[in-house]
Amino acid sequence: MADVRLTGVEKAYGDIRILHGIDLEIRDGEFMVFVGPSGCGKSTLLRSIAGLEEITGGELTIGGRVVNDVPPSARGIAMVFQSYALYPHMNLFDNMAFGLKLAKVPKAEIETAVRNAAKILHIEHLLDRKPKDLSGGQRQRVAIGRAIVRKPEVFLFDEPLSNLDAALRVRMRYEFAKLHEDLKTTMIYVTHDQVEAMTLADRIVVLSAGKVEQVGSPLELYEHPRNLFVAGFIGSPKMNFIEGELVAIEAGHVDVKLSGGNVVLQARVDGSAAQVGDKVTLGVRPEHIRTEGQGNQLQSTVAFVESLGGTTFAYCPYPGVEEALTCQFEGRNGADRLRSGQALNLHLPAEALYVFDADGKALRRLAAPELSA
Ligand SMILES: Nc1ncnc2c1ncn2[C@@H]1O[C@H](COP(=O)(O)OP(=O)(O)OP(=O)(O)O)[C@@H](O)[C@H]1O
Ligand SMILES: [Mg+2]
């Protein structure tokens, strides 16, 4: 087990700078997840930690040891990639044993390590099979098994589940959580998948264009995104944004006049650093919009409804909103009877609203106990 520290880590290919001074501390035994849009540098960062890419600035330590010039094989890490190339002509046992054989580990020790990994991953009964005779999920387990037998100090996973179908992803997600619970080894995991990030991570790192936007627990990021980028990135479906202007700042709340029309909404945020007249963006998550409630209302006409049975999404256009407000209603309490063309009163609870200044920085949200419960 080991912690991983990055201090001012830079990566450039010639003149093209990919990572811009990354500072991060990944704690010993932590499950850390990297998320961010395609091309933001998640894989580059992971490969830099692995030593598959040489960093062009800064310092990287694993378990307190500076590893900038240490080759990948001596860093105490094991990496699992999205495309888990197994050797097709070898059975599972040999696929998992291969690295240990190369390292001239004694036979009995290899036997124990492989059987132990196979047991953890529930593939003991498959050890004689060749990869072509396995399902996708089983192949993925072999790739993880190959990493486990090396007893690394740190596991690195680059979108390990993205080749699997939806049902299998759910099962493997659970397996990853259990694997971390059993091994308690430091894990760094890259994913595009919101749910994977929220459910697996002790902490999430949100990256954008080679920079860290925010680091925090899943709920911290959900409830207190530092800026518009993180607010729009964490949460699914995405947070709604409405343009507006600050018209009043009081202790405990601010009033925002929406740019389309005369509606003023109150938000429970700390406006002490802002000024009346400031342009702001109001944020509200689809799951926090209601059809009933006192005050903070706006009128819309439903443009489109998606009924998934338990959950209903209504898309409601409003001036100053790109496309439409996405509203999410749970259960069958009438929401399933919504129709396009219908007029709808929307209630946006003051404690559910986020406010961002003209630079996209979030005004601090004040306690929202009913949301954080
Ligand atoms: N060898 C290279 N030379 C120049 N640019 C590169 C090289 N390798 C990667 N890049 C660039 O670095 C940036 C980051 O790539 P990276 O693969 O880390 O993104 P990512 O966040 O993992 O994206 P994805 O989610 O699509 O996997 C991209 O803009 C990519 O084009
Ligand atoms: Mg990638």
Automatic annotation (TrEMBL):
Gene3D superfamilies: 2.40.50.100, Nucleic acid-binding proteins, P-loop containing nucleotide triphosphate hydrolases
Protein name: Multiple sugar transport system ATP-binding protein
Pfam families associated with the record: ABC_tran, OB_MalK
Record's keyword terms, sorted: ATP-binding, Cell inner membrane, Cell membrane, Membrane, Nucleotide-binding, Sugar transport, Transport
Superkingdom, taxonomy of origin: Bacteria
CDD domains with a match to the protein in the record: ABC_MalK_N
A single cellular component GO annotation: ATP-binding cassette (ABC) transporter complex, substrate-binding subunit-containing
Gene Ontology molecular function terms on file: ABC-type maltose transporter activity; ATP binding; ATP hydrolysis activity
Domain ABC transporter: 4-234
Record InterPro entries: AAA+_ATPase (IPR003593), ABC_transporter-like_ATP-bd (IPR003439), ABC_transporter-like_CS (IPR017871), ABC_transpr_MalK-like (IPR015855), ABC_transpr_MalK/UgpC-like (IPR047641), Mo/tungstate-bd_C_term_dom (IPR008995), NA-bd_OB-fold (IPR012340), OB_MalK-like (IPR040582)
